[in-house]
Amino acid sequence: MTALRLSDGEWKLMNLLWDAAPEALTIGALVDALKKDTGWTKATVNVMLTRLSEKGAVGVDASGRAKLFTPLVSREQAVRQEASNALSRVRGGAGLLLSAMAERCELSDAEIEDLYRILKEGRGRG
After folding, report:
1. Which of 13, 43, 80, 119 has its C-alpha lying 20 to 30 A from 94's C-alpha?
2. DSSP letter, residue 9
3. Domain count, the chain
4. pLDDT tens digits, residue range 5-62?
């Protein structure tokens, strides 16, 4: 997969598509779902969907009366790519990035245990 970089707005759209999957959504459904939070118009959402399609993140089925949109990448793929992008931009690597994240977030005991497990599994891979 090429480096997928999503803007904050694109993440909002992708999260809606991932939550609905495997069902496809129309642009109208996306606009309705985002209206209260963002105030985006149909034109704005259409531009963003076009960009996501060009990036290979969203599939478009135009065979029916209304276009249907589905995610072509999984949430996990996008999150892994985003983490990789962040690590490549931060000097000091994973430790500095994790430290900054931990300072901003209140992590539950379960989340901390998950991080320990993930770090132990990743030891020696890179």
Report:
1. 13
2. H
3. 2
4. 999 999 999 999 999 999 999 999 999 999 999 999 999 999 999 999 999 999 999 9
pTM of the shown model:
0.75
> CA 48 to CA 42: how far, in whole Å?
10
- State the pLDDT confidence band at 124, using cuts at 50, 70 and 90: low
- Say whether both 81 and 103 belong to one domain: yes
Domain, as residue range, for 51: 8-71
Kindly provide the residue ranges of all beta strands, DSSP E only, lying in 1-126, ordered along the sequence: 58-61, 68-71
- 58 and 87 both lie in a single domain: no
Q: Are residues 12 and 56 in the same domain?
A: yes
Asked if residue 86 and residue 46 are part of one domain, the reply reads: no
Long-range contact pairs involving 10-16 (C-beta distance under 8 Å, separation at least 24): 10/48, 10/51, 10/52, 10/57, 12/37, 12/38, 13/45, 13/48, 13/49, 13/52, 13/58, 14/52, 14/57, 14/58, 14/71, 14/75, 14/78, 15/75
Residue 70, helix vs strand vs coil: strand
